[in-house]
Each structure stands twice: as C-alpha cells, then as structure tokens.
Amino acid sequence: MLSTLLPTRTLLFLGLCLTGRRGLASAPELREPPKNIAVIGAGIGGTATAYFLRQEFGAGIKIDVFEAGTVGGRLATVKVGDVGYETGGSVIHPLNLHMKHFVDTLGLSPRKDVPSKMAIFDGEQLIFEESDWVIVNFFRMLWRYGLNFLRMQMWVEGVLDKFMRIYQYQQYGYSFTSMEKLLHAMGGDEFLQMVNKTLEEAMLKAGFSQSFLNDIVVPVTRVNYGQSVRINAFVGAVSLAGADSGLWAVDEGNKLVCSGLLYHSKAELISARVTGITRKMRTSKAGGTVPQFEVSYNGEFGSAYSLYDIVIVATPLHQGLSQIAFSGFSPPIPSYFPGRYQQTVSTLVHGILNMSFLGSTESPSDFRMSDILTKDHGGLAINSLSSLDPVHIPDGYVRPPASVKKVWKVFSPQPLSKDQLRQMFLSWDMVSEEPWLAYPAYSPPHRKPPFILHDHLYYLNAIEWAASAMEMSAIAARNLALLAHHRWHGLQGKVDQEDLHSRLRSEL
Ligand SMILES: Cc1cc2nc3c(=O)[nH]c(=O)nc-3n(C[C@H](O)[C@H](O)[C@H](O)COP(=O)(O)OP(=O)(O)OC[C@H]3O[C@@H](n4cnc5c(N)ncnc54)[C@H](O)[C@@H]3O)c2cc1C
Ligand SMILES: *[C@@H]1O[C@H](CO)[C@@H](O)[C@H](O)[C@H]1NC(C)=O
Ligand SMILES: *[C@@H]1O[C@H](CO)[C@@H](O)[C@H](O)[C@H]1NC(C)=O
C-alpha cells in the first residue's frame, strides 16, 4: 500500500530462534500430564494452538481440533477459472514472526512480490496516486501534510518496537492470564490506554492534523478494518503498520498455514460443530476429583460428545460466528460476550473497471493502481477497491492495466447491488461474494473478554478486541498453550511476571 513511501525496515528480530532456551529451565512435573485437549476452531488461531500445545505437552497427549466449516476459517481463497485469490485475511507484516516461523517450519514459501501502488478516492475523484518514484511521493506528502507523515512512521515504529517484546517473552516461556497483562508486559500503561481510546483521540493528542487523519489515516483504517478512526488506537497502529513496506502473503494461499500446522501438530481433525461444553468431574488416580469438560458436537455422523482435560475455544463467542452453550459453570459463562463483529463483504469481480466511477480521465491502459483506498464520503458504498493478484504469481507476471478484464476485489459493509456493480464496472463475467463477520466493531472503551473462561478452559479470540490479525491469533495461541501448560503443572514462575522487559535485558 503506502509501501514505496516508507523506508524498508530492517528485520531485526528475524534471527531469533523462536523455540528458545526455555526447555533447559523446565521445572519438575508436578502432576500427571493431561490425557487429551480439545481445540474448537481450525482457523489460524486454533491450528497454531494445536501446534504450540504439541510443543508444550509433547507427543504423549491427544489433541482434537473441531471445525464446523473449512480449515482456515477467515483465511480463504476462491477460484476464478483455474486461478486462486484470497478473499479473507490477505497481507502479513514482515515483523509477524510467528507467521514467518510457521511458513519456514512447514516448508511453505512467501508469494513472489508484485509491487503495490496505492491511490486514494474521495468519492468523486482520486486525490492521491502513488508514483513509481519514492522521492516524488515523499515530496508530495511533505508538501501536503508537512511532517505528519514522518511522525506517523515514527509513532507506528515506536509501538512496533514494544510489540516485538512479546516474542522474547514467549521464547522464554512466559505467559499471561489476561489481555491486559499481556499488553502491559509489552507496552506498559501506554498500551493499556491505547486499547481504551480511539485512534483519532490518540493521534490528535499526539499533534497530527485533522486533515491528515481524514485524507490518509481514515482510508487505511477503512481498507483494513472497514471502520473509521474511532477504532481503538492499538488496532489503529496495527492498521497503520499494515501500510508498511515488505508486506507478504503465503504462496498458494494463506490458509495453507492452517492445514500445515494441523498436520504438523499430529492433532486429529473432527469435522463437526461444537454445540456445548459442560463441566464434569472425574476421579483421579490419586483418589481426588478433578474437573473435566464434556464437549458435545454435531457432525455428518450425527451428534456425540467426548471428555477433555483442557479445552481451548478458538472462535469468536459472538452472534453469527459460533454458538456454544456452556453449562455447569459458576459463575456462568455466556455464549456471547458484549460487542459485535463488523460485516465486511468481500466481492471478487472479473471484469473491466469503469474509470469514470473514479472520476478519472486517465487512459485505462495506463492505470495500474493496485489498491484504491477511500475517504469517508457519505454516498460511497465501498471501503476499498483492489486489483487482485493471484495466490501464486507465475513467472513473468505483470499486473494488468485497467483496460484489461481482470479480478478486482471490493470491500463494502453491505452486499453490492446490481446497480452499484454497473456503476463500477463496464462489464463482467463473474462475481463472487463473501459476507464476512470480519473483525470486532471496535468502540473503545470496551470491556475485554477473558483468556480464562474457567480453570483449564481458555478463550483465544479475546485477543481480537485489542487487534484482529493473523499474527494476533498466533500470539494468543502461543500464550494460551504456555498458560495451559504452566497452570496444569502449577508453574507459577512463568505466569504474569512483572517487569519482564528489564529483567530479560539484564539476563542477556
Ligand atoms: C476480509 C478480511 C480481511 C482481513 N485482512 C487481514 C489481513 O490482511 N491481515 C491479517 O493479518 N488479518 C486480516 N484479517 C483478519 C484475520 O483474517 C483474522 O484475524 C484471523 O484469520 C482470525 O483467525 P482465527 O483462527 O482466530 O478465527 P477464524 O479464522 O474465524 O477461525 C475460527 C474457526 O472456528 C470455526 N467454528 C466456529 N464455531 C465453531 C463451532 N461451534 N464448532 C467448531 N468450529 C467452529 C469456524 O468455522 C472457523 O473456521 C482479515 C479478515 C477478513 C474477514
Ligand atoms: C461509469 O461511471 C459513471 C460515473 O459514475 C456513470 O455515470 C456511468 O453510468 C458508469 N457506467 C458506464 C457504463 O459508463
Ligand atoms: C478500559 O475500559 C473498560 C470499560 O470501560 C474498563 O473496564 C477497563 O478497566 C479499562 N481499562 C483500562 C486499562 O483503563
């Protein structure tokens, strides 16, 4: 997106070995290991959880992963002819170290890069078009917005530097019982405040101009989260980092990471919808009683239930996404937590763009923008319009110009009507529409759902209320695998430690 405007970031931490030295310090096992663990959901969150659980608990335990739909969840591709395209989560930041580690471990590769080019549409015309020349972009931005642009990069970089601390903590085996504690360990009170105030508040307070927010920041939050700058400042920073250079995707489709992790973890995939989780007790070898969970599910084979020692819910507990009834818990666990998910309809169109829709008189054969972001304009039905490159880039591929029939991706809050399509495209021969409940509808301050629903029952997607992204789910997955392990074995020394940053720095 804003790629050529930003300096290339050095991949500081990529040398970090993600599995770490922690094994050496393992404390004595205080309990018999759990027999089996259930993970509900096989998106990137659930499959990464299975992977990290295997790493923590070893080969001896049984891990079952339940999936009601398709492995990958919000990472999904559709075919246009023989060629696949991402319809859900698509770009990965170069400093998303878990995603990077998964791709390396699973023998996958990053997709070949096709340079992106961004434009901004205000509902009537294109107000900005990225040039091929970095220096031209730089002076255009400087001319219009003064130092706002450089300051924004520094602001995002400051957040990212603190964010990166999580990898070191996790490498050493530290885990956190709540999102607040995890955020605090990364960025102190600053991060806690960021999730409770809007991006707009935070940036105005930091001295950014309103016109910079309207012209540049709003288009970025609209394309990434389908929302305005009233999202929380933390997810806002994640969103702005998503305009960095070096963004990548997985060759042949991001969802391959999910099936790869599942296979690598040697977990069993159960194609069924979990309908309920009930707290039960079992008698242990030692004679006492220990809690257990009865997971009920519906599959093609009918309904069934199984008992588990540990359960990790890796799907949002919100209307329209999962419906799981919890029983036997005190205090009770709701099926839905407060707040709703934002609909983003992802429409793929194989057709020819109507350049007049963009108020442009440029020749379509010269128009090679890849990402057209939008300002908040009353009458505008779309959040963004992108020229989409396939999940696998063949040798010699060049992104075709707008004069050619090709695949466009439109994000909009509502499905596009025939009339709306007719405005945007001169002709088309295929339309595919995916109405995602994509990410939380952020309205800070918001009470965050817990990671721990009950002793040994965990909730991964709570993390999305700080920020929703593939990497965030992966971070939560590692945190919960560590937490489940440490709490099972009573290893309190690795849970909720304060001041890790300075402690680990002096240890190094
Ligand atoms: C249009 C769009 C664009 C996005 N763009 C990006 C991007 O560019 N970069 C980025 O990092 N992120 C992006 N995201 C966000 C990213 O896709 C998500 O944060 C991430 O994929 C969430 O993964 P997850 O595994 O936590 O949840 P999900 O992928 O939602 O997985 C949950 C799984 O649980 C299953 N399930 C639900 N209920 C049950 C049940 N009762 N029993 C059994 N299974 C159940 C579901 O079928 C689903 O497969 C985007 C999302 C969307 C929708
Ligand atoms: C193209 O866009 C213009 C401007 O929005 C509109 O008037 C016209 O009807 C659209 N469609 C065609 C086929 O030109
Ligand atoms: C954020 O706001 C919620 C809801 O108002 C509140 O419960 C929570 O304590 C706040 N968190 C912080 C860190 O201020």
Explained architecture:
The protein is α/β, with parallel strands linked by helices and 508 residues long. The protein contains 13 helices and 18 strands. Strands 1, 2, 7, 8, 9, 10, 11, 17 and 18 form a nine-stranded mixed beta sheet that branches. A seven-stranded mixed beta sheet has the order 6-5-13-14-15-12-16. Strands 3-4 form a two-stranded antiparallel sheet. Helix 7 packs across helix 9. The chain starts with 35 loop residues before the first strand and ends with a helix. The N terminus is likely disordered. The structure holds flavin-adenine dinucleotide and 2-acetamido-2-deoxy-beta-D-glucopyranose (2 copies). One 2-acetamido-2-deoxy-beta-D-glucopyranose binds next to helix 6.
Q: Helicity, in percent?
A: 25-40%
SS-based class? alpha/beta
- How many strands in all? 18
Based on CA atoms alone, the radius of gyration comes out at 23 Å
Tell me about the largest β-sheet: 9 strands, mixed
From the N-terminal CA to the C-terminal CA, the straight-line distance is 37 Å
Shape: globular
Mean pLDDT: 92
Hetero groups bound? flavin-adenine dinucleotide, 2-acetamido-2-deoxy-beta-D-glucopyranose
**Proportion of strand residues:** 15-25%
- Poorly predicted regions are 1-29
The number of helices is 13
Pfam families: NAD_binding_8, Prenylcys_lyase
Catalytic activity: an S-polyprenyl-L-cysteine + O2 + H2O = a polyprenal + L-cysteine + H2O2; S-(2E,6E)-farnesyl-L-cysteine + O2 + H2O = (2E,6E)-farnesal + L-cysteine + H2O2; [(2E,6E,10E)-geranylgeranyl]-L-cysteine + O2 + H2O = (2E,6E,10E)-geranylgeranial + L-cysteine + H2O2
InterPro entries: FAD/NAD-bd_sf, Prenylcys_lyase, Prenylcysteine_Oxase1
Domain Prenylcysteine lyase: 128-497
